[in-house]
């Protein structure tokens, strides 16, 4: 069995925990940001509406900054103020509102879960983190804990990226913070720390601290309400711990401590508290090239129209609309790219397309979380209508205004 972590990594002193809770909540009451989902959760008397509001905000905030989410959240809640209203919406409507927010499967899963609540759970959200995670698709451990604590007052902790950073600094946890064993320890700590009388506020305070003070680079340690509990801050002030650790303590890289930094990555005094957290090196994003053709015709009122097609219902950018596109092998010559794209369009339109008729426009680079995507953009003007094979993919002609109102990705808007 792996060695247990020494006491220095844990919150084992009830008196310290009580002081930390009080200081953090007092700071939160003074300094919290005015965010629309917080206001709604604080004033909405109906528990299910409160839970729905928090749920939507937490799904949107996954992998997305607060400043970006606010406008999307307000428009979403205006369009679908209740879970029942969302359940009646179409996926196309959801994708249209979500367009530009990224990670599009989030909106799809949110709607699927809303329909399940209405059809299988009598329209009532589960009240505990355990049931929320078990019964709702797309709701993981963190989202379930956030909904249950903020909306229903369950005394359960939460661990997101901000909380990972705060806890790793508070307790000098230098092992890989993305490893399952460390994540489990952090959840244990979050559940110990959470305030039993104000669990939702405490969890939001911990996340707020990581988002606004204990930030990844240049943290504002002087403004931190819990710095006296922070071992990384003390380490920065007083230097390296003594070479011989106490019985209940451990120095850097001594023994088999599962939470200390590895011996190959000692404390770097120039980094201070930003020595923590530590993560395994990310894999470089996969490079992909895609040929994209903007087909244009003159509409019935003289304005240009553009052809868009719908992507498959699963996979990357599922169900969104795009200009006709074709994945390319790496290192193809431009002539070969043109030929492959022309063949693709020809099979689609059922009439010859000359490769030399494709006008090269340029390249657009878009970074997905795991893909470095290059779109090689061509255009083709059509002097007459074309009949498309409906078996290949849903398609439609749109004006520029209709294009921007459709469920299209940010990458296609760049194109």
TrEMBL record:
- The domain of life is Eukaryota
Q: Which reaction does it catalyse?
A: Hydrolyzes free adenine bases from 7,8-dihydro-8-oxoguanine:adenine mismatched double-stranded DNA, leaving an apurinic site
Q: Where in the cell is it found?
A: Mitochondrion; Nucleus
In short, the EC number is: 3.2.2.31
Task: Output one GO BP term.
Answer: base-excision repair
Pfam families per UniProt: HHH, HhH-GPD, NUDIX_4
What is the free-text note on the cofactor? Binds 1 [4Fe-4S] cluster.
PROSITE patterns on file: ENDONUCLEASE_III_2
InterPro entries xrefs: DNA_glycosylase, Endonuclease-III-like_CS2, Endonuclease3_FeS-loop_motif, HhH-GPD_domain, HhH_base_excis_C, HhH_motif, MIG/MutY, MutY_C
Report the GO terms under cellular component.
mitochondrion; nucleus
Chief localisation class: mitochondrion
The prosthetic group or cofactor this protein requires is:
[4Fe-4S] cluster
Task: Quote one Gene Ontology molecular function term.
Answer: 4 iron, 4 sulfur cluster binding
Q: Which UniProt keywords apply?
A: 4Fe-4S, DNA damage, DNA repair, Glycosidase, Hydrolase, Iron, Iron-sulfur, Metal-binding, Mitochondrion, Nucleus
Q: What class of enzyme is it?
A: hydrolase
Physiological role: Involved in oxidative DNA damage repair. Initiates repair of A*oxoG to C*G by removing the inappropriately paired adenine base from the DNA backbone. Possesses both adenine and 2-OH-A DNA glycosylase activities. Adenine glycosylase active on G-A mispairs.
Q: Which PANTHER family match?
A: ADENINE DNA GLYCOSYLASE (PTHR42944)
* Name of the protein in question: Adenine DNA glycosylase
UniProt gene name: Mutyh
